Inverse folding.
């Protein structure tokens, strides 16, 4: 049976991890490669690197980062953040990224999804969707409201050929009160492509709910892992005991 | 040991180069027929859509060259599918090294089949010791009594590893399958994979 995936997300700015990282055995808390290696060794199923650099120049460093990550770790990883062109995606995939994630650029110009899928195949194109409780899709890191509604946009993303959806509930993000189970559940019923749940992870039980109740294919979290509030080995052994298929 | 990774514009070649680096073996991406024919072992990678991949193989002459290779050849993901007889995705014939058809998953489960799933080399489907490897694909090669040496279950069994003489195919990505995948690549280097 296909295992449910646990995915730590690393925010990257100018080639360095940004959120405070609290690991005892970490030599350099800002080094994304060292952190990635630790997560990989702990049993993370995939990694996501989200580039939040403000400028194009700074973003170019994420291509080098992809190359270094590919050299060091042997699990799949996705790179996202500020990607809007076929050339950027080509450079990232060529540097060893397995998937790229696009977000605002797809909302502004949905045909970008078709172009990327045609060029590189569905399997490496992840579309990240940020939504709020009002049911609307937001861009620019959750700041700008778009006219799109979560469910219809998710369907369109699927129809345009995306291989996977990374759904972040902006109202849950950072709260540690659990994932947006209702919205997640509806998405999973409506879609035939995998959905990664994001936003709200605070306890091991939250992951269980995302998988068991909302049927998410994968769950992503950042700070609970970075601050070692939940360790990946403990989380996976807990989920296994609850009969969730876990590697 | 000199490993050629066939570069025909389809595949995450960098990750493969690095995977062999980590095993201390030199693997070079190339599209040159001479380099490929004289390599000790050959990797036939591939991700993306089958139709442009087939087109590229035909343009470069690799379509005719690959089936004639005498050294060990490892096809990965789309590379494995292309070695089969027919690809539904392209509605076209493959390299016909293996007689199986490659068709799309017809299931209520999510497609692509994306993530970690278990390899099974035994009849016993409840074997708890089976290893997880990383898959990402929407099409699969059917099982064949003579050539399928490991299967995987996704609403039905499909070929996870196939072998015929010097040709081996993996539907999963050993270069992305953690320690288990590294061991699989090591046995390919050692010539013991599937034996």
């Amino acid at each position: 049976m296909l295992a449910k995936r646990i995915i730590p997300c690393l925010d990257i700015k100018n080639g360095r991890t940004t959120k405070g990282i609290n690991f005892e055995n970490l030599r350099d808390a800002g080094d994304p490669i060292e952190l990635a290696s630790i997560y990989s060794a702990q049993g993370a199923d995939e990694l996501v690197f989200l580039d939040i650099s403000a400028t194009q120049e700074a973003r170019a460093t994420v291509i080098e980062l992809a190359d270094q990550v590919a050299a060091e770790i042997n699990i799949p990883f996705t790179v996202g953040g500020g990607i809007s062109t076929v050339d950027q995606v080509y450079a990232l995939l060529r540097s060893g990224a397995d998937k790229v994630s696009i977000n605002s650029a797809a909302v502004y110009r949905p045909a970008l999804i078709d172009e990327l899928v045609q060029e590189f195949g569905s399997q490496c194109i992840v579309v990240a969707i940020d939504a709020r409780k009002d049911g609307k899709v937001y861009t620019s890191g959750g700041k700008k409201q778009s006219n799109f509604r979560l469910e219809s946009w998710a369907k369109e993303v699927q129809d345009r050929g995306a291989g996977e959806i990374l759904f972040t509930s902006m109202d849950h993000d950072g709260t540690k009160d659990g994932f947006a189970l209702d919205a997640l559940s509806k998405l999973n019923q409506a879609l035939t492509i995998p959905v990664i749940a994001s936003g709200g992870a605070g306890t091991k039980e939250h992951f269980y709910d995302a998988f068991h109740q909302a049927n998410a294919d994968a769950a992503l979290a950042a700070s609970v892992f970075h601050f070692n509030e939940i360790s990946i080995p403990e989380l996976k052994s807990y989920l296994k005991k609850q009969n969730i298929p876990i590697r | 040991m000199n490993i050629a990774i066939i570069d025909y514009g389809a595949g995450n070649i960098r990750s493969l180069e690095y995977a062999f680096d980590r095993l201390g073996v030199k693997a070079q991406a190339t599209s040159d027929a001479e380099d490929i024919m004289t390599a000790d072992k050959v990797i036939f990678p591939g991700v993306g859509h089958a139709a442009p991949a087939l087109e590229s193989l035909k343009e470069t002459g690799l379509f005719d060259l690959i089936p004639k290779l005498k050294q060990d050849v490892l096809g990965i993901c789309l590379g494995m599918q292309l070695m089969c007889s027919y690809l539904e995705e392209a509605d076209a014939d493959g390299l016909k090294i293996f007689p199986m058809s490659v068709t799309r998953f017809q299931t209520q489960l999510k497609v692509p089949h994306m993530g970690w799933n278990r390899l099974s080399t035994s009849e016993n489907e409840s074997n708890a010791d089976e290893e997880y490897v990383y898959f990402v694909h929407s099409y699969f090669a059917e099982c064949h009594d003579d050539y399928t040496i490991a299967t995987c279950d996704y609403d039905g069994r499909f070929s996870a590893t196939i072998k015929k003489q010097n040709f081996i195919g993996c539907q999963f990505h050993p270069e992305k399958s953690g320690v288990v995948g590294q061991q699989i690549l090591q046995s390919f280097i050692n010539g013991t994979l599937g034996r």
About this structure: The first helix of chain B runs from residue 13 to 22.
